[in-house]
Amino acid sequence: MKKIVLIIIAAFSTMQLFSQPVEGIILNTETNTPIANVNISVKNSPLGTVSDQNGHFSLALPEGQNTTLYISCVGYETQEIGVTGNKNITIQLHPGSIQLNRSIVVTASRNELLSLQSPDAVSVITNQELKNNAPRSMAEALIGATGVWMQKTNHGGGSPFVRGLTGNQTLLLIDGIRLNNATFRYGPNQYFNTIDVFSVDRVEVIRGKGSVMYGSDALGGAINVLTRTPQYTSGESRFGGKGQVKYMNKGMEKSGTGEVSYASKNFAISGNAHYKDFGDIYAGGSLGYERPSGYDENGVNLKAKVRFAESWQITSAFQYLRQNNVGRYDQVAQRGYQIYKYDLQIHRLSYAKVEHYSENKWIRKVKLTLSNQYSDETRKKQKENSTTYTLENDAVKTNGISFENYSSISKIWEAVSGAEFYSDNVNSGKTVTDLETSDEIISRGLYPDNSSMKNFGLFSQHTLKHNKLQVTFGGRFNTFQIRSTDDEFGKVTLTPSSLVGNISFQYFTAPTQHFILSAHSAFRAPNINDISSFGSFDYGIEIPSTDLSPEKSITVEGGYKKSSEKFSMAATAFNTCLKDQIVRIESTYNGEEYIDGERVYQKANVARSNIFGIEFESGFQFNRQLTFVNNLTWLYGKNLENDAPMRRIPPLNGKLALQYSLSAIFGEAEFLFAAKQDRLSDGDIDDHRIPEGGTPGWNILNLKAGYSWDKISINAGLQNLFNQAYRIHGSGVDGYGRSFWVTIQFEV
Fold first, then answer.
1. Strands 712-719 and 739-747, how do they pair?
2. Which H or E run includes 586?
3. CA-atom Rg of the chain in angstroms
4. How many Å separate Cα 319 from the centre of its chain?
5. DSSP-assigned beta bridge partners for residue 653
6. Is 519 exposed, middle or buried, given 0-12, 13-18 or 19+ CB atoms closer than 10 A?
7. Residue 469: helix, strand or coil by DSSP?
8. Do 90 and 230 lie in a common domain?
9. How far apart are CA 547 and CA 272, in angstroms?
10. pTM higher than the cut 0.85
11. In which residue ranges of the chain is pLDDT below 50?
């Protein structure tokens, strides 16, 4: 803490006033007309603004300094330009261009850069894609993304697989803050679905990396959901508002959100509230309705930022989401439950970020983030023909603090270093009620009550540039303290630690294309779920495990990226070796192999696996209106202990899409496909969500269209045009049948 205070004091001492203005206008290249509401941000600075209704903007920049501006707007190509100040500039944006390799990303390096410049395999779901696709949830927003496989155990869930790994082996972030906590499960979970998709600006997926920058759980990679941030205005202060309503037929969705905002030169704030009513899934073919799968959701989001002394900025946010009656259709349909649902399911996040920009090369940008989260999950269960009703509740309170410092040491050397600390406290309980006598028994929940997990890490990553070669390397040290006290299984205290690193080489054969060779290690520390779970899962009963160490992985990959006006592509081949994997093995409880007819399992560091994969995506622009985009992902996973298939590996899958964009008109024909997955592990064979013999292959065709005029836009879609019955491998529910949706968005 003393070091942090000294750095902040040093930052104040180097604070400079910004006096040289840059003014300009943003124009559409096709129509030569002004573009309003374009975001103009200054790299490594809290400075930024939006263009007014006439396309004009004005910014005060550091005196005598070369500055990089990022220019971005929904539906237009992102640009990076350098300016000095005292200039009137004209910036022309190309509409409807390919965004592959051209999006601004922050997750991989904790600093802004174009995705083309990153040595990492990056998938970005842009704001434009979110608008065009109008996804029902965060889970469905990632369907079709390169390198991502979205499994849905239930309609109110959604667990992204990145490079064959999911659950607590893939790290989820909200605005750079860990969503993963001490109770994240091995395998699929529903927590990604507790992020309000209405509040999201974009999603960044860093495939295969993340441990150096963000710590535990990033074995498969890291997914960062970046929520919308209100923008300053360079003109007069103004109030604004917007809203959206969505309808899906067959009673599958009725939702809406409303937002109000205020913006001035140095202060901006926005807030929204939403309500969603999701009906039961109407599946393809002759499957019909799958009940119970529907649920309802409501929530609020607030975000504000204030800029002062021209080089300081504070951003604060509050997010709250509540879901009710989230049914587990698979448990009711296949596992003999009369009732199995999550009711309630709550996620709350509050945070404050303080940023400072300085001309001091060692502390170019400093950020301090304080966060508080609360996750509450209540499960209600009752077996068929049973008079016993069970209510289980798990609540996790998380406090976090992170500090990061970006340094621009020289023209060829940049670095980001920092520290972070997270503390989780878990409360868990269970109440079993005899419905005939109304007698209640209150007992231990899935976890021992008042368990805790503390997580402290130090990291540093550096980038060196020399002619056509760029080298990025870094390391991280993490230590943990995990405590759990159980009346039956005793007290457990674990203090694991890990040291990981990465190195990447980029060779730019031209400014718009380069080859990549990289190696990186990752880890996942055992958590409260691993060491203390006592309860049922998909195919058995799990008892606590008290002697676990971190899972580890080493990945080697090679890639190629290219970006041009007409054609862009990215291709990656990788090999990941995992060791000391924490997996369930058969065990006994009080000398018995079964509890109430369910096989007993316990976790142990006994598995070694290997995953090899190829990821490819490209986009070709026939002209300014017509674009073809596609991607393909292939994975091969093997358990090295028994030379058997690795569990839950997705099949070959991909997307083909033809997109049309002309001024206010948008259209898309999207073809999604997956091959049959019959390479099954023993766990897959025992999984009731996977059909006997494996999950059949499928292909579906979706059509989308949109039209915008003035401040109103309408988007609509026809999904699963040929009404195919299909299921995403590993899911507990089937995909939508032939149906349509429509959204109306408006601004005031």
1. antiparallel
2. strand 567-586
3. 25
4. 16
5. 633, 674
6. middle
7. strand
8. no
9. 46
10. yes
11. 1-19
**Residue 562 domain boundaries:** 224-747
Residue with tokens 């990549």: 516
Collapsing DSSP to helix, strand or coil, 734 comes out as coil
Peptide bond into 718 cis (omega under 30): no
Beta bridge partners of 594: 599
E strand or H helix at 302, and its extent?
Answer: strand 295-308
Contact 419, 457 (CB under 8 A): yes
- The owner of tokens 């605005």 is 175
| Contact partners, residue 267, CB within 8 Å, separation at least 6 | 232, 304, 305, 306, 307
- The CA-atom distances, in angstroms, between 618 and each of 112, 325, 566, 628 are 23, 41, 11, 8
Whole-number pLDDT of residue 736: 97
Q: Is 348:326 a contact under the CB 8 Å cutoff?
A: no
8 Å CB contact between 221 and 206:
yes
Residue 144 domain-assigned? no
AA letter at 402 = S
Q: Would 149 be classed as within a structural domain? A: no
Rounded Cα–Cα distance for residues 180 and 216 (Å): 9
DSSP 85-139: SSEEEEEEE-BT---TTTSEE-TTTTS-EEGGG-SSEEEEE-HHHHHHH--SSHH
Contact 420, 400 (CB under 8 A): yes
C-alpha count within 13 angstroms, C-beta hemisphere, residue 697: 12
Indicate which CATH number applies to the domain containing 488: 2.40.170.20
DSSP 601-632: EEEEEEEEEEEEEEEEEEEEESSSSEEEEEEE
| Predicted pLDDT at 16 | 40
Q: Do residue 555 and residue 697 come from a single domain?
A: yes
Separation CA 39–CA 365 (nearest Å): 20
Q: What are phi and psi of 415, to 5 degrees?
A: -150, 150
Please list the residues that pair with 349 across neighbouring strands. Answer: 319, 373
Domain final residue pick, 26, 61, 95: 95
Nearest residue to 461 via CA among 497, 531, 507, 414: 414
pLDDT at 373: 98
Neighbour count for residue 450 (Cβ, 10 Å)? 12
Residue with tokens 């930022």: 305
d(Cα 533, Cα 525) in Å, to the nearest integer?
15
* DSSP SS3 for 651: coil
Instruction: Provide the token pair at 497.
Output: 């630690």
Residue 516 near residue 119, CB atoms below 8 Å: yes
What is the structure's pLDDT at 689?
92
Which among 644, 630, 720, 724 has a CA at the least distance from the CA of 682? 644
Q: Report pLDDT for 20.
A: 63
At 650, phi and psi to the nearest 5? -65, 155
State the pLDDT at residue 192.
94
> What separation in angstroms does the CA of 645 have from each of 537, 611, 640?
21, 10, 9
What is the structure's pLDDT at 575? 98
Distance CA 59, CA 707 (A): 33
Phi, psi (degrees; rounded to nearest 5) at 332: -75, -40
Cα separation, 28 vs 663, whole angstroms: 10
CATH for 81: 2.60.40.1120
CA distance 354 to 352: 7
Q: By three-state DSSP, how is residue 199 classified?
A: helix
Whether 523 and 499 have beta carbons less than 8 Å apart is answered as no
pLDDT for the residue numbered 51: 81
Clarify whether residues 229 and 85 are in a common domain: no
156 falls within a domain:
no
- Asked whether residue 111 is domain-assigned, the answer is no
CA distances from 680 to 142, 382, 500, 619, 695 (A): 24, 31, 31, 33, 10
Handedness of CA 104, 107, 112, 117 (dihedral sign): negative
Q: How many domains does the chain have?
A: 2
* 122: its two tokens: 């990056």
Q: Identify the domain boundary among 62, 95, 128.
A: 95
